[in-house]
């Protein structure tokens, strides 16, 4: 195994190349380079230095990762035969994926790697833009960065933007968070005699002719919350401001208890938007649900009990812990097995045993008797107290229905109430077998009734008469008309 030396060509022309790097390049018999597209290489060729590039590898692949992997594999292969010098733009350890792959190869014992110096493009970039990196900055790869990891309140530098196509991909990603006309600066050949800075609105980023192998895109920090409405930090700051000393009197006085009803209302409105297949409505209503979550987190922080980070940590840990088939080495065959694992892990987390108290503990829901019934029956079914299939549930429903009808004829109101409760309980059990949420079904039924009855009211109003002027059959005809219209709309 021979030594594989990686050396940096710097960010500009030969005149700015470090003397030590220059001497090492001059002493090499042959130098491998990722690309010939660098001003130093052109000048060194004139001095008789021989370079072998991997430019042809780029033409073989549609994405960059396999290019980097093939270059790395070739270098490792050559290093088994002879010493290798590999030169890359800038500094080897700044925005150079092939070097990172070579470091992995060294860890695996495939090569003896040495990394030499070289000026990175960051120093001349900071100088050209006249920014202080201590304020906070991010350097990301334009071919693979995720917009979800971007800090909009820091300096953002995007490297590996080679041409109009890669610039277009970067533009589309940035437009997921930044406004379309947000100013971005195209920095080319920073620190060299060819240095140029061009500031354009974001939507014009891929229309610039200055983009090439020496280009870096600079996105300045946002200066106000209106420029960062799609950033989580902005929303958190809005809620904190509303709850703060100079905020809104209504928000300031809210408590966990006072907000309970609003969380239920917003959740139901979101469910209604789902039923209506209203995407815009879902965006709005889900935002209202999110508002409730952030308000409760802010109240927790204001009271010194918990904050949003603790909420996130709790649910993140839970999701990882309860999905060992995704984040671990557990194998599952289907969704039913996933649910079984989930319940087993949940039981283990809570330290539940057969003697630790009732299985139904914690399943009561004060806001919904239907949901409580569903929870009780689901919990009982988890230990085998259940019908083998839906047939048993149907038979039990018919039995309870007949008992209720018998009590109706007897006229005993207390027993009648009890028997009707049994009927509802069996209906919830049937819903469970068919994987229907009884609470959601009831919400849907109520909404449907309100919608159709509103149509009946409208018809009565249009007639100029009162409800008492219509027979039940006439009102029922209006109801049926509403049903027909709904079917046509669907």
From TrEMBL:
Sequence ranges assigned to domain NTP pyrophosphohydrolase MazG-like in this UniProt record: 254-327, 397-452
Recorded superkingdom: Bacteria
UniProt keyword terms in alphabetical order: Methyltransferase, Transferase
Residue ranges of coiled coil: none
Gene3D superfamilies per record: Cobalt-precorrin-4 Transmethylase, Domain 1, MazG-like
Pfam families membership: MazG, TP_methylase
A GO term for molecular function: nucleoside triphosphate diphosphatase activity
Domain Tetrapyrrole methylase: 3-205
GO BP, sorted A to Z: dATP catabolic process; dGTP catabolic process; dTTP catabolic process; dUTP catabolic process; methylation; response to stress; TTP catabolic process; UTP catabolic process
Stated name of the protein: Tetrapyrrole methylase family protein/MazG family protein
Organism per entry: Ureibacillus chungkukjangi
């Amino acid at each position: 195994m021979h030594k594989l030396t990686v050396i940096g060509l710097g960010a500009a022309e030969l005149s700015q190349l470090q003397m030590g790097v220059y001497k090492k390049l001059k002493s090499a018999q042959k130098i491998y380079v990722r690309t010939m597209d660098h001003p130093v290489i052109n000048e060194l060729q004139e001095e008789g230095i021989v370079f072998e590039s991997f430019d042809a590898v780029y033409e073989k692949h549609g994405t960059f990762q396999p290019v980097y992997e093939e270059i790395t594999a070739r270098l490792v292969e050559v290093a088994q035969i002879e010493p290798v010098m590999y030169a890359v733009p800038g500094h080897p350890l700044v925005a150079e994926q092939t070097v990172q792959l070579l470091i992995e190869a060294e860890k695996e014992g495939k090569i003896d790697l040495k990394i030499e110096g070289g000026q990175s493009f960051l120093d001349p970039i900071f100088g050209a833009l006249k920014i202080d990196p201590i304020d906070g900055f991010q350097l990301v790869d334009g071919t693979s960065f995720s917009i979800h990891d971007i800090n909009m309140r820091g300096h953002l530098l995007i490297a590996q933007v080679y041409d109009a196509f890669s610039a277009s991909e970067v533009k589309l990603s940035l437009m997921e968070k930044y406004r379309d006309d947000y100013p971005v600066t195209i920095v080319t050949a920073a620190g060299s005699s060819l240095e140029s800075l061009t500031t354009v609105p974001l939507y014009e980023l891929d229309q610039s002719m200055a983009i090439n192998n020496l280009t870096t895109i600079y996105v300045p920090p946002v200066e106000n919350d209106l420029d960062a409405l799609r950033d989580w930090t902005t929303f958190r700051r809005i809620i904190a401001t509303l709850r703060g000393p100079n905020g809104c009197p209504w928000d300031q006085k809210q408590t966990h208890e006072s907000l309970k009803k609003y969380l239920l209302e917003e959740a139901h409105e979101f469910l209604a938007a789902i039923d209506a297949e209203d995407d815009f409505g879902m965006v709005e209503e889900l935002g209202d649900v999110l508002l409730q979550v952030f308000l409760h987190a802010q109240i927790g922080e204001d009271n010194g009990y918990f904050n949003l980070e603790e909420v996130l940590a709790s649910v993140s840990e839970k999701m990882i812990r309860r999905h060992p088939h995704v984040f671990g080495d557990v194998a599952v065959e289907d969704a039913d097995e996933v649910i079984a694992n989930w319940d087993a892990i949940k039981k283990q987390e809570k330290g539940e045993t057969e003697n630790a108290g009732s299985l139904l503990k914690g399943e009561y829901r004060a806001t919904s008797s239907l949901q409580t019934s569903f929870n009780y029956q689901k919990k009982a079914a988890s230990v085998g107290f259940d019908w083998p299939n839906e047939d048993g549930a149907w038979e039990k429903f018919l039995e309870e229905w007949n008992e209720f009808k018998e009590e109706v004829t007897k006229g005993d109101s207390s027993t009648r109430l009890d028997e009707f409760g049994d009927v509802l309980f069996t209906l919830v059990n049937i819903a469970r077998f068919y994987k229907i949420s009884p609470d959601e079904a009831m919400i849907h039924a109520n909404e449907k009734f309100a919608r159709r009855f509103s149509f009946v009211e409208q018809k009565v109003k249009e007639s100029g008469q009162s409800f008492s002027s219509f027979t039940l059959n006439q009102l029922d005809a209006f109801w049926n008309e509403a049903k027909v219209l709904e079917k046509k709309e669907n």
